[in-house]
Write a structure and sequence with these properties.
317 residues, alpha/beta, eight-stranded parallel beta barrel, two-stranded parallel ribbon, 11 helices, 16 strands, globular
């Protein structure tokens, strides 16, 4: 793979929308989609608002607890596919209580065009959210957050090899490589050098998770410089800024020639003190930013071409 430093500025910007995730709990926002019907509706609305990639998790419809159950995914995946042409991206990050085997069950069954792939083992602290005063809807929520104080998200080299083989090689699924720190980029380069991963790469720089790199412009610039050094012009990048950092870092990403990610998985707010009423509202907000930068929004078919995806007709849902 080329290690050239120069790469063209991307003038079509992919908007990824992460619909529900497994970090936030139901008591944090009444707008967080929980049931398959709610996840489907918010995903479709986000696609109609301009998101070309939909990043999806599932939850227990009664409690909101993150779930790896493929049957729950299959309650919303066909609905979303029938109503939009958006690229479906199924998480393999799953949730805090899941094993690696749990986390890949849904993607293995559904064979989506894309799946996320966290590029390392790391601390993943959610417990600072306990500092906010709130009435908990479910007993599991405060314990879930507190347990993250002693939680390690596990994706070893062997785990990554398994996911690449079981999803990528077996199903033709391509990956969004989630890099929470600079070392994750070197892990990605290791797999590229072994030819277990082939370009074009789609790298998601993740900033602001406790246990990963901090959310500030210097760190984003450092991640970008490192990726340029390692991958030359053979990659696309996007940026996930956690919480209040979502829109500032997405704006910076677009100005740097990259793509953007929004959604209630990453940030529950539309602006300071105002909960986002749905995922589509965040998509519309970042679209306004991109329009102000004179950037064109990538369609789902643009995203498929940019990322060399297999096409929606080759999924299993």
């Amino acid at each position: 793979m080329s290690r050239a430093m120069s790469r063209p500025i991307n003038r079509k910007v992919i908007i990824t929308c992460a619909i529900t995730g497994s970090v936030h709990t139901p008591s944090m926002s009444p707008h967080l989609p929980i049931t398959p019907a709610d996840i489907a509706k918010q995903a479709i609305d986000a696609a109609n608002a301009g998101a070309s990639i939909l990043h999806l998790h599932a939850r227990d419809p009664e409690t909101g607890f993150p779930s790896p159950d493929p049957d729950l995914f299959m309650e919303f995946l066909p609905i979303i596919k029938s109503a939009t042409d958006a690229v479906i991206n199924i998480s393999t990050g799953g949730g805090m209580t899941m094993t690696v085997k749990d986390r890949i069950r849904a993607a293995s069954l559904a064979a989506p065009e894309m799946a996320s792939l966290n590029m390392g083992t790391m601390n993943f602290g959610l417990f600072p959210a306990l500092g906010a005063t709130r009435d908990w809807k479910h007993d599991w929520e405060p314990k879930f957050l507190e347990d993250s104080r002693d939680f390690v998200f596990k994706n070893t080299f062997a785990d990554i090899e398994t996911i690449l083989a079981d999803l990528g090689d077996a199903n033709g699924t391509r990956f969004e490589f989630e890099c929470y720190d600079v070392g994750h980029l070197y892990t990605l380069a290791h797999f590229v050098d072994r030819r277990l991963i082939k370009g074009p790469l789609f790298i998601q720089f993740v900033l602001g998770v406790l246990g990963g790199i901090g959310a500030d412009p210097d760190n984003l610039a450092h991640l970008k410089r490192t990726a340029d050094k390692l991958f030359g012009d053979q990659y696309q990048f996007s940026v996930l800024g956690a919480g209040r950092h979502q829109m500032p870092l997405a704006t910076m990403a677009a100005a740097m020639g990259g793509n953007v990610r929004v959604g209630l998985e990453d940030n529950l707010y539309l602006r300071k003190g105002e909960l986002a009423p749905d995922n589509a509202s965040q998509v519309r907000k970042i679209r306004e930013v991109l329009a102000g930068l004179s950037l064109e929004i990538a369609t789902p078919d643009d995203a498929r071409e940019m990322l060399a995806l297999k096409g929606a007709d080759k999924v299993a849902f």
